[in-house]
């Protein structure tokens, strides 16, 4: 069993608190992603789990052992970094074997593990090459191979794909997901990229300023964000936030008086007469005549088109709504031009309300 459990964990650097009251139970074999903007404490948390940083306060358990004071080499973990950290003078085989040699693993066992890992990662033909003779993607595979041969219970990965170009990143993303399923290990993966988080994680921890904002499955984060930060961070392009006043159960403002459907209709009563952020994702706004959203008087926004960004299948239309900007993802063939007055239709069941502060 390789559950990883953090209880009331803090990390302080002098006066700076990088991680505050971090509580999380990562289950055996889970693929857990830490995501958030730069500086929010993701790497620090991962490094505390690895044993590369001391824990200022709180408890870390791996399996059923308290690990706070256990040296990194005895934690049954392997870490993969973004810069690969391969030894330039060693070939691929030696790079992968190195950690095992240090541990005095028998030669035949080393050979077996290196060749198995090379096979899984499809780098068998590269075993004699030096790192400088490899592409970025191949180097990243070797770095993964070096972790795999250790057969750890927990893999820790810190932005392992951020040095790869966009196409390779997408490819390696699915490779790592497959690897996770095949190895049956626990993975803790740090990224600032919400798309990586959404596509790879079984669960995701969204962090901000050293504090966990929400821990959830990708779809729950998307559907039920707990606060405006999570709502704005997950999804691409991100959720629109429009200032609105609640009147008669409707979000009202210049160009709209929208009646939410579903659970929000109930909870919006508590905001009657108040100003709120109305949240709506670009993909839940369509254009009259080009969208599957049925039209009624309570889901229309009248606005002026400012920018049109055709992407083929869809077009991002940026509109002005009395000084506020809104992005709608509409049908790629909708004939819109900057300056047009348009009627947008929102999906009333996909609206959110957030407090102004
Ligand atoms: P992330 O990985 O989310 O980008 P980090 O965990 O690297 O964030 O950093 C979290 C915070 O801790 C930042 O404010 C950073 O400046 C601070 N920090 C990280 N390492 C140190 C250090 N060695 N000394 C002082 N402050 C640090």
UniProtKB/TrEMBL annotation:
It comes from the Bacteria. GO terms for biological process: carbohydrate transport. PROSITE patterns: ABC_TRANSPORTER_1, ABC_TRANSPORTER_2. InterPro entries: AAA+_ATPase, ABC_transporter-like_ATP-bd, ABC_transporter-like_CS, ABC_transpr_MalK-like, ABC_transpr_MalK/UgpC-like, Mo/tungstate-bd_C_term_dom, NA-bd_OB-fold, OB_MalK-like. Residues 4-234 form the ABC transporter domain. Keywords: ATP-binding, Nucleotide-binding, Transport. One of its GO terms (molecular function) is ATP binding. SMART domains: AAA (SM00382). One of its GO terms (cellular component) is ATP-binding cassette (ABC) transporter complex, substrate-binding subunit-containing. The keyword Membrane does not apply. This is Glycerol-3-phosphate ABC transporter ATP-binding protein.
